[in-house]
Amino acid sequence: MSDLVVVVAAGGGVGRSTTADLLAHRLCAAGPLVLIDDTPGLFSLRRSLPRGPDGLATMPGYRGAYHVLAPADPLARIDTVGVVEGADPAWTTLVVDSYDSVLYLLHAEQWYRLLTEPGVRVLLVTPSATGPLQQALTAARALRQAGVAAEDLVAAVVDIAGGRMPRPVRARMVMLDGEVGAITRVPHLPSVRATGRLEAGHGGRDAQRAADALVHHLALETAA
User: Would you say the pTM of this structure is higher than 0.90?
Assistant: First the structure.
């Protein structure tokens, strides 16, 4: 089976698509990668890319086979679990960018089975703010109680404060660290939210280091 990473969050607007694209950008050079975005933003490039007969679009400007599966119609959604279950074995990596919150997904039978499948990596994204971190902590505890192993659960904290984190934020990060296998800090890259892709060279060394750390903590070195 292909390496599968499900990128989730406790709520919207937290940097989930940024993190998913950062990871996909890092992994696509190693082999064919498909990013499944079941509900991209209205103006996301992922909606407007030309598609082949199989529905896949090639993300331009990347070194590697980076393909996207996303609905073109704003009212449409993709049966993500069905796509994953019928995935082409030639795809080296699958990255799922899921719009719905963790608690919603855990109450959907198919998603519950997918998230708790042994070997499926779950990447929980949250911005570096007190409220969202508390929500992420609740989501991480729910995932662990559902049966997601600590080594398969990694948190990505999007640094919206530019490196300066107040004491309450640091305290919640310590609590979150106790529920997940590892925490990686990800730079804030707002351009991805609008376009659905990381522009060439954008993010610099901080983005590269964050991507390397995600690959390491998610145990994806062989795929990279």
Answer: yes
